[in-house]
Write a structure and sequence with these properties.
single chain, Alpha-Beta Plaits, three-stranded antiparallel beta sheet, 6 helices, 3 strands, elongated
Length: 149
């Protein structure tokens, strides 16, 4: 059941923006072409890389500068961190389902271009301070934060 929730949250994340859907489709087509023998070697890698770039593309105006804060609110607090961006996004969706606003902060190049299994940066999931205990409780209850640092 929990796996189905994670899968639904992940697919909802992909469908949320057109560039994510397009990027995922390009990566899938590149992988299918490589496995079927239609595209070999470097062209398959380049097409897959372009798909990942399209998937991760964000316009500057898409990023809310002060999405969680008004002038009277304090700085958001970190409730989870992990080098896996998709996992952080799934956790954020779980909190959004409960009505808790979230913000994700990451060092983009460090989290994407590092070798698998090695991370030079952690992606952080933040919530307003008034939701900190509730958010941690939800993540604990759903067993979503067992991999967080």
């Amino acid at each position: 059941m929990l796996t189905m929730r994670k899968a639904r949250a992940f697919f909802r994340f992909i469908r949320l923006r057109f560039n994510r859907s397009l990027g995922a489709m390009i990566v899938l087509l590149a992988l299918a072409g490589w496995f079927m023998g239609w595209i070999r070697g470097m062209p398959a890698f380049v097409i897959a890389f372009i798909g990942v770039a399209v998937f991760l593309y964000r316009k500057t105006e898409d990023r809310p500068a002060e999405s969680l804060r008004s002038q009277s609110d304090p700085e958001p607090v970190v409730v989870a961190q992990n080098p896996n961006y998709a996992l952080i996004q799934i956790w954020a969706e779980a909190l959004h389902d409960e009505g808790i606003p979230t913000e994700i902060r990451d060092e983009f190049m460090g989290s994407i271009l590092t070798q698998p299994g090695r991370s030079y940066s952690e992606i952080k999931l933040l919530v307003p301070p008034r939701f900190e205990t509730t958010a941690k409780g939800i993540l604990d209850k759903r067993n979503l934060d067992k991999h967080s640092s």
